[in-house]
Amino acid sequence: MGAYAAASFVAWFASWGLAPGFSLVALLLASVAVAALLAPLVERGLLRVFYGRDEVLLVLVTYALFLILEDATKLIWGTNPYFVSAPYSLFGNVQVGAQSYVGYDFVLVAVAVVCGVGVWWGLNRTRTGKVVLAVIHSAEVASSMGVNISRVYTFAFMFGIFLAALGGALTAPMISVSPGVSVSVVIVSFAVVIIGGLGSIEGAAIGALIVGLARALAVHTWPPAELFSIYLAMAIVLVFRPEGLFLRVKARRI
Amino acid sequence: MKLKITAIAAALAVCGSASAQETFKLGIVSFLSGQAAESFGIPAVNGAKVVLEAFNTGKAPAPYNKVGFGGVKIEAIYVDENGGATKQVQELRNLYDRDKVDAVVGYVGSGDCLAVAPVAEEMKKFLILYDCGTPRIFEDGKYAYVFRTASHAAMDNVALARYLKARGVKFTTINYINQDYAWGHDSRNDFKAAAAQLFPGSKNQADLLPKFGAGQYGTEISALLAQPADLTHSSLWGGDLQAFILQAGPRDLFKRTQVVLSAADHVLPGLGDKMPDGVILGARGAYGQMAPKSALNDWWWKIYEDAYKTYPVQAPYRMVQSLLGLKLAVEKAMAANGGKKPTPEQLAAALTNSTWESPAGPIRMNLGDGHQATQDTAIGRTKYDAAKKMVTLVDIQRFPADCVNPPPGIKGEDWIKGGFAGAKCP
Question: Beta B390-399 vs B377-385: how paired, if at all?
Fold first, then answer.
């Protein structure tokens, strides 16, 4: 959704005759728009019904939603690919030895670090973040302490959607935005989250680094093992840390 | 109660026979969703729609100018190929059993073709595979009811290697990037073998096999740049190919190595000025801009362009050449059947070993006991035309079918490794 919205926003901005630099603003606005439109709809209209049920059910519901949204993108944007490559060339090229890198790639790394640190800081160092953590920990207790749970849920979900849409929007310039782009992302993200440990931001960051480096190592040294390397890394981590590298301290439920 | 059921059954029987008399039911299977829809399935189905419309109104040029198939109107049923081989087997059974189609034309995916061919054979129903690439279908199997109306993938890579030879492109080292499934592996093997024959001193370096639908090639491009080769071969296609070009272009890969693509003309209209100049590519036939000049091609190009505001590339060409061949076969079989709709056996007999003219040149069903086609092909080089705002193909060279396809009775791979015995090149 983010990638498609980005495609539309960048195209609109270009049609208004704005400088290419504004295409970055377009990417950001696209993510905000997706979050603002989609999140309340999904959270209020669908997910709310399933709170308190088994988490497995929630996974199934969101997966079904993913399939529906995938088809929805086809209804809205059709099957033809979109190209949003304008922002990709904004930052020039960087030469490192025999390699030539696109500056945009480095900007993405920086954005990822900023987002990661920002979310960590927001969750652990601000009042709002601590309230969110409290609600995740025990909605019942939080509620009895006077927290408006449903508002926290909506806010957290909206923020999550915004980050996901931002990810899609920032990737859009590097790819041809066409039906089916999201499937591969889901699989790799799953590996990242499992390696890192569910619910841990440090874990997700380390997990992403492990998966990325494992893949790169395989491609450079032994290409047939590319996919295998991701799962090998995951398996090794799980042998020693069955719940992932970082695990939130959990209260034992009795 | 019993009477009611009989009445319904009778009504159904009447309907069934009435519609069977009126139309030739044709099942068309291609990707209407998923990753292969945008570049292959939808354009192919679009091609089928305009051509069948022309058939049904009798507006196609001679010898294709009879209304429908020999006066019988064609009724097409479109089925989505997405969802894997198991699903396709079921869908094909439904087409024959429930929809009572007279023939099926379909399948882009090599895995789907390998799965559905034995099903049509077992059900004794007529099936044309119009696009898929794997040579194995008629090289490893034998079918009475199954046909493929286009060349298999050996042609594409042999033609690429011959083009490099003919144009005097100098190289010693080759990198490969192909998808990790039948098509990617076969294409790489065929090009490797052909290069070893035609360029004996050439050396293979990196051999990358990203998975189908990977979409992100940052690491692969780094690997290709880390051990630069004179030549880089790829059979990537569709969204994967577009993504690879969008990512590799800005990183100067195309400036540091001569890229050769075995099936790439279908991304040219979409990529426009993002397609680097000087890339050598094929289209799996003399398709699109590389099609030979003919009245039939002009007609086909026009009806497609009028309907869809873009020119036809590989996928719709392959669809139209199969429908033209099917039309002549049906009409021949009808003539032998006293003007009545032919049985699958009569249809199969009519198509076996037949030849016909297509917009991309002559199609001959001369391999696999008359069930596998060979055709001419062409290779060209990209050049962006700023005035026309489109990627044009220059230095186009055509290769006759006998030059780049194995002769009957030998497998493609063995033919290449044996030094192309029996090849007739101009």
Answer: antiparallel
* Shared-domain flag, residues A200 and A210: yes
> Which of A94, A213, A219, A231 is the best substitution to test chain B (most B C-beta atoms within 10 A)?
A219
| Cβ neighbours of residue A50 closer than 8 Å, sequence gap 6 or more | A57, A58, A61
User: How far apart (Å, rounded) are the C-alpha atoms in residues A184 and B243?
Assistant: 14
Give the residue, A253 or B311, on which the prediction is more confident: B311
Residues paired with B392 in a beta bridge? B383
pLDDT score of B402 more than 60: yes
Q: Is B352 within 8 Å of B369 (Cβ atoms)? A: yes
Chain A residues within 8 A of B220 when measuring between CB atoms? 219
Quote the pLDDT of residue B197: 94
* Chain B interface disruption, residue of A4, A74, A79, most B CBs within 10 A: A79
Return the pLDDT at B15: 43
Picking from B126, B125, B117, B129, the residue whose alpha carbon sits closest to that of residue B89 is: B117
Find the CB nearest A180 among B206, B213, B226: B213
**Cβ pair A175:B206 closer than 8 A:** no
- Nearest-CA neighbor of B150 among B199, B90, B210, B108? B108
Rounded to two decimals, what is the model's pTM?
0.82
Q: Give the best residue of A176, A188, A209, A220 to mutate against chain B (max B CB count within 10 A).
A: A176
Domain residues for the domain of A41 are: 2-178
For domain B154-289+376-417, which architecture applies? Answer: 3-Layer(aba) Sandwich (3.40)
Average pLDDT estimate for B243-249 = 90
Omega before residue B400 within 30° of 0, cis: no
Q: CB-CB: which of B209, B214, B215 is closest to A224?
A: B209
- 3-state secondary structure labels for all residues of A165-199: HHHHHHHHHHCEECCCHHHHHHHHHHHHHHHHCCC
Tell me the pLDDT tens digit for each residue of A214-240.
988 988 888 888 778 888 988 998 898
Contact B289/A at CB under 8 A: no
Of B105, B176, B177, B180, nearest to B146 by C-alpha is: B105
* Domains contained in chain A, number: 2
Residue A189's alpha-carbon distances to A3, A164, A182, A207, in angstroms, are 17, 11, 11, 9
d(CA B235, CA B262): 5
Q: A153 is written with which tokens?
A: 């849920």
Same domain, residue pair A87 and A210? no
Q: B216 to chain A: nearest residue by CA?
A: A175
Contact status, residue B107 vs residue B129, Cβ threshold 8 Å: yes
Q: Are residues A116 and A210 in the same domain?
A: no
CA–CA separation, A101 and A63 (whole Å):
35
Pick A100's closest partner by Cβ from B206, B219, B252. Answer: B252
Of A178, A194, A229, the residue at which a domain comes to its end is: A178
Q: For chain A, say whether B205 makes contact (Cβ under 8 Å).
A: no
Nearest CB to A184; choose among B180, B208, B213: B213
User: B2-152+292-375 has which CATH code?
Assistant: 3.40.50.2300
H-run or E-run covering B361:
strand B361-367
Among B30, B98, B40, B19, residue whose Cα is nearest residue A79:
B40
> Helical H runs in B167-237?
182-198, 218-226
Q: What is the DSSP letter of A82?
A: E
CB contact under 8 A, B226 and A220: yes
Residues A12 and A98 in one domain: yes
Q: Encode burial over A182-211: b for 16+ CB neighbours within 10 A, e otherwise.
A: bebbeebbebbbbbbbeebbebbbbbbebb
User: Which tokens go with A80?
Assistant: 């033809």
Say whether the ipTM exceeds 0.85: no
